[in-house]
Amino acid sequence: MRRFAHSLVYKIGRYTILFALGLTSAVARAQDPPAPATEAGGPPDVAAPAAEAPAAPAIATPPPAPRGPWEDRIDEIDQRTRILERKQELAIEAAAAAPPRPIVQADENGFSISSADRQYQIRFKGLIQVDGRRFFTSDSTLQNSDTFILRRIRPILDGTLLGLVDFRISPDFGNNTTAILDAYIDAHPRPWLRLRAGKFKEPVGLERLQADQDMDFIERSLDSNLSPQREIGLELWGDIGSGLVRYEAGIFNGNADNALTDVDSDHAKSFEGRIFIQPFNTESLSFLGRLGVGIAASTGNEKGVSTLAAPNPWMGTFKSDGQQTIASYLTSTTDITQTVVAYGRHTRINPQLYYYNGPVGLLAEWVKEHQEVAELTTTGTTFGTGTYNNSAGHVTVSGALGGDVTYEGLKPHKPLDLAAGTFGALELALRYDWLNIDSAAFPTGIDPTKSVSEAKAYGVALNWQLSRNLKVAGNYEQTSFTGGAKTGNRPTEKVLLGRFQIAF
């Protein structure tokens, strides 16, 4: 359209100038005086005698008027305009025929390359956490636990294929170990219908589902002892009503408490699911904050296998907030009768909720598990089957200055900028968490001189979120125990934790 208008203006101007020039010449000729019919002062014409009139001479065509320099200039401009218009057309045609360029992006969410239509994407992310632990106790064992540690080192590779299938690969090199934490594909034909297959977090544990870099406290609460770290299986999930309801339902290998085992030791599988409702997740009710209420559950038959050469009892190990082992089931590599294995039904139920509104937040949950077990004879057969019912929970409240508290972590209103006088955001969090181990487990399943039957912890956290990518955190946690010593109770654990974190 622009090219047509441009050409039209030039043509109208050209013809207007030519018409004006022609009109000027005609007027000039009309104003020239006519030649006189007789000599000056002569008598008037007298009619000649009648005679045959001679033939009128032919009227000669006047020669064309010479072209003015302005007309040549107009022709030159018109020709140049046509050339430029054609070049522009060719450039547009070439651009349309060329393949679209990929989009390269780098921001606080990581680094990514994607096709122009975003049907194909690859995203590079990462997490580095450098921790320090200082125990305040007279217990020589805990004193030797003071350490700096690379808690998590995770290169993360995310991607999208055909705009339909996402994938993630996330190894972890922290804690002086190597493990594959996440490796899955996720097909999403609809927001309410997604299928995930591979290794990932199962539905039990609201704090467990929270990303490691987004937690208020450096270490997870005591109730994380009653859920596995990861599971391998298939899961249908999705968001209904733009996130008003999220559902998850899957079939998994099943895993021991706080475990990361990949290969199932039994043909039976576990069924797990969760329903999570966010009633204020609408534009009209968003001013009420973000409330989430849900319940998760898992159940399945599990069977541990134990031999003196390779014991695999499929039973969990419980850790304190300071990451010290505080309880474990009996297992032995010298006496098979001193080993307890999972044998039968393992069921967990997990009510959960959170509430976030600007600078304040609350996260709470409770986990109850039913674990059927068995002891082994010298021949490896089972006897004396029993059931252990353990429970745990926590409540965390938090408040922020200069940012908003969310389930996805503290979000500063403005990142640290000394020149602009902004400091990021500060967060103060308080937590109470507890763990109760069934008394039926003592002493046949758990040694009471080495393992506690109850733990109660209080903690305070101070976090400085310089930006969404940089965080400095400090925690103080104090945990008291029932049992766990040869006489009386295990000494109270008092630990100071610090962390420097980069996440993108």
H-E order: HHEEEHEEEEHEEEEEEEEEEEEEEE
Number of helices: 4
CATH architectural label: Beta Barrel
- Outline the biggest β-sheet: 16 strands, antiparallel, barrel
Instruction: Write down the domain tally.
Output: 1
How many E strands? 22
Explain how this protein is built.
With 504 residues, the protein is mainly beta. The protein has one domain (103-503): Porin. 13% of the residues lie in helices and 45% in strands. The strands form three sheets. Strands 3-4-5-6-7-8-9-10-11-14-15-16-19-20-21-22 form a 16-stranded antiparallel barrel. Strand 15 (360-376) and strand 16 form a beta hairpin. Helix 1 runs antiparallel to helix 2.
Quick overview of this protein structure:
With 504 residues, the chain is mainly beta.
